[in-house]
Amino acid sequence: MDISIDFMRRIADAAAAETLPRFRSQGAVANKEQGSFDPVTEADREAERVIRALISAEYPDHGILGEEHGSENISSRHVWVIDPIDGTRAFISGLPVWGTLVGLTVDGDAVAGMMSQPFTGELFYANASGAHYEGPGGPRRLTTRKTTSLAEATLFTTTPALFKGDARLRYDLFERQVQLARYGTDCYAFAMVAAGSVDIVADPGLKPYDIVALIPIIEKAGGVVTTFEGGRAESGGDILAAATPELHAAAMAALRG
């Protein structure tokens, strides 16, 4: 099935009405995980609430999986996967690299998705027509860079600290092979792969709501998204996105050691 850009814009606008007034407002932050820090804010909860309401009204038979409010009807062939604020740590730090992620799976495959960054006024989305951008500079079709060599690649990861034990050693060797490595930016780094500004993102330990929306955006722009082992990424896990199949293969080999 196809999802109209008008519906994606409606979702982005509704979420922005909840997130933007609370951004850089010094609101309360709760911790979801005892023994570490996994922040959640009122903006997270309220943005997901309005997104779910829009989806339920438009597609009442579809399932929904959200980070903050759980799952409903996920035995449906069509399941929407929501992260109302991907990058809550950036959000509470006042950095505009967070985004609202909403993706649709059909029989488990990600077929449409959007990433909205309302503070910068950007919308990245993919549907049956391809991968597209709306924002500063005007609308355009998204296309990945044609980088095939690690030595010419720009790599992002949230932080190397997420790689544990031998995986950290392999990551460090991998990072030494690329031209430029940078950290942070959560979903924005993945969007930059689709936009042709970043070549590789390697992020371990992602949840479905961290990646489902981004899969079709990157794939329809010409990139590849899998687990580190080459499996489908819809269920989350250790996720590797790359601008070209050749670069993806080289990065996967490097991460395996």
Automatic annotation (TrEMBL):
Please report a single Pfam family linked to this protein.
Inositol_P
Q: Which CDD domains match?
A: Bacterial_IMPase_like_1 (cd01641)
Tell me which EC number(s) this protein carries. Answer: 3.1.3.15
The highest taxon in the source lineage is: Bacteria
What keyword terms does UniProt attach to this protein? Amino-acid biosynthesis, Histidine biosynthesis, Hydrolase, Magnesium, Metal-binding
Q: One MF term in GO for this entry?
A: histidinol-phosphatase activity
User: Which PROSITE patterns does the record cross-reference, listed alphabetically?
Assistant: IMP_1
Q: Could you tell me which pathway this protein works in?
A: Amino-acid biosynthesis; L-histidine biosynthesis; L-histidine from 5-phospho-alpha-D-ribose 1-diphosphate: step 8/9
Question: Catalytic activity annotated for this protein?
Answer: L-histidinol phosphate + H2O = L-histidinol + phosphate
Q: Cite the InterPro entries for this sequence.
A: His_9_proposed, Inositol_monoP_metal-BS, Inositol_monophosphatase-like
The answer, when asked if Cell cycle is one of the entry's keywords, is no
Q: What cofactor is this protein dependent on?
A: Mg(2+)
Would you identify the family this protein belongs to, as annotated? Belongs to the inositol monophosphatase superfamily.
The entry's protein name is: Histidinol-phosphatase
